[in-house]
Write a structure and sequence with these properties.
Blueprint lengths: L5 H21 L14 E7 L6 E7 L2 E10 L4 E9 L5 E7 L8 E10 L2 E10 L8 E2 L5 E3 L3 E4 L10 E7 L6
Antiparallel strand pairs: 1-4, 2-3, 3-6, 4-5, 5-11, 6-10, 7-8, 7-11, 9-10
Keywords: Signal
InterPro entries: MYDGF
Protein name: MYDGF factor
Length: 175
């Protein structure tokens, strides 16, 4: 299940995702580890306009997340990427966002790809929550979700992006 479908599916994911992200955040520490339950890792990077394709990646143990994009207009913007693994090792999360909430760049393309896990939930936002404002999600037709990536949908994406969230299920070794 990549994206919620129907009212009851959305409610289930709406409860699961914040809980999973809170669990990952609760285990934050200065240095990331590589074992299940390793501390989340957050890094800052510049999103640069100019129409060229750029990428930024973070890894945590056997899992990685890569954000690839092309943007126009304005100047560099400071963004962040955070990756984490749940304590039981069952979930890998990747979030990419602009801490100021809204990006003033025009994104011509974007893709966030995970390796080592399969996407269970993903959402893209035109505006990230800041202060009293809430996240504003992209319309479902603006982006697509596969087992390993979230990306813009050609001809439907309206060039606004401020946040991406992915929760992916890690492979489990059964005894």
């Amino acid at each position: 299940m990549a994206a919620p479908s129907g009212r009851s599916g959305w409610r289930s994911w709406a409860a699961l995702v914040p809980a999973a992200l809170l669990c990952l955040a609760a285990h934050a520490a200065a240095e990331p580890g590589t074992a299940p339950g390793a501390a989340p890792s957050t890094a800052e990077f510049d999103v640069r306009p100019g129409g060229e394709v750029h990428s930024f990646s973070r890894s945590l143990g056997d899992y990685s997340c890569t954000f690839t994009y092309s943007a126009q207009g304005g100047t560099n913007e400071q963004w962040q990427m955070s990756v984490g693994v749940s304590e039981d090792g069952g979930l890998f999360s990747c979030s990419v966002w602009r801490p100021q909430g809204k990006s003033y760049l025009f994104f011509t393309q974007f893709k966030a790809e995970v390796k080592g896990a399969k996407i269970e939930y993903a959402m893209a936002y035109s505006q990230a929550a800041v202060g009293a404002q809430s996240d504003i999600p992209l319309k479902q037709e603006e982006f697509e979700i596969t087992e390993t990536a979230v990306s813009h949908r050609e001809g439907k994406f309206r060039f606004e992006l401020s946040k991406l969230m992915i929760v992916a299920k890690t492979p489990r070794d059964e005894l």
